[in-house]
Amino acid sequence: MQGKVIIFSAPSGAGKSTVVNHLLGLHPEFEFSISATSRKPRGTEQNGVEYYFIDALQFRELIADNAFVEYEEVYHDRFYGTLKSEVERIWNNGHVIVFDVDVKGGVSLKKYFGDSAMSVLIVPPSMEVLEQRLRGRGTDSEEAIRERLEKAQSELDYAAGKFDVDLVNDRLEDTFAQAEAIVDGFLCA
Ligand code: ADP
Ligand code: 5GP
Question: Does domain 5-188 have CATH number 3.40.50.300?
Answer without folding.
Answer: yes
